[in-house]
Design a protein that fits this description.
Beta Polymerase, domain 2; about 475 residues; alpha+beta; 2 domains; Spore Coat Polysaccharide Biosynthesis Protein SpsA, Chain A; seven-stranded mixed beta sheet; elongated
Length: about 475
């Protein structure tokens, strides 16, 4: 028997609900699932503890040997539930999947030891890797782990030790063992480590001798405004290794330290290997992604161009730049003067683009700006990030057109790239082949010849590997 537990704060995401229903429908005749939720409580440490206490104490669940926690905003394949159940039963330890934080810069919700190499790709077989801590929003927990936690006399912490307490006040109608109470430990280097509720739970299991496993065959979505997965980690700010990614998987190598609560610091450097374009296979993958993105935009009632580093590489080198980390595209809904129309025109265009990009197999990893202030969309496919910048008319203080246009760049700085509007009135097309085949080529629209010099200056033909998009372009104006 399996106890399926879902803590719900505001609502259960519809995609999570569909996945839950499909997972339950896969139940075999020799298996039983009991599903319960606790809703309306924003304190996740309390809700998780209450559900774990139900699993441990309630007579109707005494035959359940595994508790599966699935948060209300995590998307998964139905068979992933059975993978983590099998994994927990086999290892008798914590077993789950890695999802990423809900931020404009997604990070793995896991603490992964230095030197760990993980290759994320959806496969039928389970492929677990032992890590230190794992967020519990998609995790299977054997009953014995919880029983041992309750019985343990003293967990080590910075204050001399603690044990779990049974709490009946401050918990509403669900008395509980405080399985997910936070605490602090001192690391070997002397620094004090604050453990959030998931890390604290994992540390207690660790002190009892249990292990934590993350399954590389599971690709989870984490729903915020958009849904993000480990495949969306190829974002500006992450270093990309030179391994080509001809497959659709994601490879993560932790170097010099571990990811810390989703943060990446100087001591904790995260490197993702997603098929950098300096490898032939990576180039072909990136060109294929570019072709798919242009195909989606062609259906979206917008004018569109390759921009920034993508346009520079295609014009200067006849190829994508070796060390570039993404594809840059510029769009303008319905052509010139569209910025004079109501701002919802841009919102409608963004939704059209999103529909066609998703149909083409892209994930939307972030949506920045507003219709009034400059949209920016970032997608990912096959490990290749694609930035889509919306072009606007520049207006003076009286809101009159100035003959210039701009789009907004979001990163460490928020700036506008501004150009004479005439640059976008003259479009050139460059044709490129994928896999060396003329039967599989693409025509890439690029703004007029002055666009490259307006962005990169008169020395644009000289390659520059160290480039700060928020400081170095020649076309910058304040956002």
């Amino acid at each position: 028997m399996i106890f399926l537990a879902t803590p719900i704060w505001r609502y259960l995401d519809v995609r999570t609900a569909h996945s839950l229903a499909a997972a339950v429908a896969m139940t075999t005749p020799d298996e039983t699932i009991w599903w319960e939720t606790i809703d309306g409580d924003a304190l996740i440490s309390r809700t998780r503890s209450q559900l774990a206490t139900k699993f441990l104490n309630e007579p109707r669940l005494r035959d359940a040997d595994v508790m599966v926690i699935i948060d209300d905003d995590v998307q998964f394949s139905p068979d992933d539930v059975w993978k983590i159940v099998e994994g927990a039963r086999e290892t008798q330890s914590l077993y789950g999947g890695i999802y990423v934080t809900r931020s404009t810069k997604p990070h793995p919700a896991a603490l992964i030891p230095a030197g760990t190499h993980m290759d994320f790709e959806k496969t039928k077989e389970r492929r677990p890797v032992e890590i230190r801590y794992l967020a519990t929003g998609f995790m299977a927990i054997p009953r014995k782990v919880l029983e041992d936690m309750v019985a343990y006399e003293k967990f080590d912490d910075i204050s001399g030790g603690h044990r779990l307490e049974f709490c009946s006040l401050g918990v509403g109608k669900h008395a509980m063992w405080d399985f997910f109470r936070t605490f602090n430990i001192r690391e070997d280097d002397g620094r004090v480590h604050y453990l959030s509720e998931d890390w604290a739970f994992g540390e207690r299991a660790r002190q009892l001798g249990y292990k934590t496993y993350a399954d590389q065959s599971i690709i989870l979505g984490h729903r915020a405004v958009v849904s993000v997965t480990v495949n969306d980690l190829a974002e500006p700010g992450y270093a990309l290794t030179e391994k080509a990614a001809a497959s659709k998987g994601t490879s993560i190598l932790i170097t010099e330290g571990a990811t810390e609560g989703g943060a990446v610091t100087e001591e904790m450097a995260l490197v993702t290997s997603l098929g950098r374009t300096n490898e032939k296979a990576g180039k072909d993958v990136a060109l294929g992604v570019l072709k798919d993105a242009l195909g989606a935009l062609s259906k979206s009632d917008v004018e569109y161009w390759a921009g920034c580093g993508t346009a520079l590489g295609l014009v200067r080198d006849g190829a994508l730049i070796e060390w570039d980390h993404d594809i840059d595209l510029i769009v303008r809904p319905d052509g010139p003067n569209c910025a004079a129309k109501p701002c919802d025109h841009y919102d409608i265009a963004a939704e059209l683009i999103d529909d066609h990009m998703r149909d083409a197999g892209f994930y939307l990893s972030r949506r920045l700006g507003t219709p009034e202030r400059g949209y920016g969309l970032t997608y990912s496919k096959d490990g290749v990030p694609v930035d889509v910048f919306f072009l606007y008319d520049s207006l003076d203080e009286k809101f009159a057109p100035t003959g210039k246009v701009h789009h907004t760049i979001y990163g460490a700085y928020v700036v506008n790239y501004e150009y004479d509007a005439a640059i976008f009135d003259n479009t050139v097309h460059r044709r490129f082949s994928i896999n060396g085949s003329s039967d599989d080529d693409i025509a890439v629209p690029i703004p007029g010849a002055n666009y490259i010099e307006a962005t990169y200056g008169p020395d644009w033909r000289t390659p520059v590997k160290e480039w700060d998009c928020g400081k170095d372009p020649k076309c910058l104006v304040p956002a």
